[in-house]
Amino acid sequence: MRRITILFIGLVVALVLLLSSVFVVDERQRALVLQFGQIRQVIEEPGLNFKIPFIQEVVYYDDRILSLDTATIEVTPADDRRLVVDAFARYRIVDAEQFRLAVGVGGLREAERLLEDILNPQIRAVLGSDGVTSDAILSSERAGLMERITEQARLRALPLGLDVLDVRLKQTELPQQNLSATFSRMRAEREREATDERARGEEAAQRVRALADRTVVELVSDANREAEITRGEADAERNRIFAEAFNIDRDFFQFYRSMAAYEAAFGGANSSMVLSPDSEFFEFFADPMGNAGLASPVAE
């Protein structure tokens, strides 16, 4: 019975030693085998592995792409227009041994603190460099600026065993205390632009009105000139016709002119006229041929 107990205890101890010496690394991980805090083995391939029980320990690190959200910081571009930005980064642990030496027992939390200490100064340096304005940061040029930040951050993160894959800005906005002043300045600029546009429009309208007035004067002047010419030609033609008619039959012409004068004198609905009885105006009342003597007085 005692031998069975000893054998059972031995089997249990052997099983514990076996289980303590076996560990598995999956495809999402890398592992370091440590002995008294010193790195003894770096395991990058997934599978079953062994270690010395109770003497060696295994530390696992994620082999996938990781993300880090940085704290909000203020930057001052070249146009002195302060902006509040925060970014996120994508990175990987590419050298587990170098990573362990850099961060120690702090692990991923310490690595993210060190990486953020790299990213924030690079963001300030690139976004605050000469020639970089707030408009550039807010436009499509931002992609090029992010590439510059990524390249510089990658160089400084390599000693940590990290590879910075990408850095992007999540938000870019003005500090709260500057919003009112910025809005007021934008409103003043828009009002100035509107005033300029109205002034230019009024100037153009005045030019159009002046041109139209000049055109009207020219057209009226030309029309009056043409009318005077036409009237002059018509009067000349009328006088010519009268002259020809007078030369053809002077008596008939005198009679026609007298009839026209009578029509003009008595054309009203209630006409009155006072003339001397021997006036030549009534010559054709007494004798249509114009040979009669004095006509009797006519009234109304």
List its traits.
54% helix; three-stranded antiparallel sheet; Tetrahydropterin Synthase, Chain A; alpha+beta; 300 residues
- Name the CATH superfamily classification of the largest domain: Band 7 domain
Q: Strand fraction band?
A: 15-25%
Helix content: 40-55%
Instruction: Please tell me the CATH architecture of the largest domain by its name.
Output: 2-Layer Sandwich
Overall shape: rod-shaped
- Please give the alpha-carbon distance between the first and last residues: 174 Å
Low-confidence stretches: 292-300
> What Rg is obtained from the alpha carbons, in whole angstroms?
57 Å
H/E topology pattern: HEEEEEEEEHHHHEHHH
Alpha-beta classification: alpha+beta
Kindly state the number of beta strands: 9
Enumerate how many helices there are, as a single number. 8
How many domains make up the 3D coordinates? 4
Structural topology:
Elements lengths: L1 H20 E4 L3 E7 L2 E6 L3 E4 L5 E7 L3 E4 L3 E3 L7 E11 L2 H8 L3 H21 L6 H4 L4 H16 L4 E12 L2 H73 L1 H16 L17 H4 L14
Antiparallel strand pairs: 1-4, 2-3, 2-5, 6-8, 7-8, 8-9
What does the model show?
There is one protein chain. Helices cover 54% and strands 19% of the residues. The radius of gyration is 57 Å and the shape is rod-shaped. The protein has 300 residues and is an alpha+beta fold. Helix 3 (107-127) packs across helix 5. The strands form three sheets. Strands 6, 7, 8 and 9 form a four-stranded antiparallel β-sheet that branches. It folds into four domains: 8-62, no CATH class; 66-173, 2-Layer Sandwich (Tetrahydropterin Synthase, Chain A); 182-248; 251-300, no CATH class. It has helices spanning 2-21, 96-103, 107-127, 134-137, 142-157, 176-248, 250-265, 283-286, and strands at residues 22-25, 29-35, 38-43, 47-50, 56-62, 66-69, 73-75, 83-93, 162-173. A hairpin with a 2-residue loop joins strand 2 (29-35) and strand 3 (38-43).
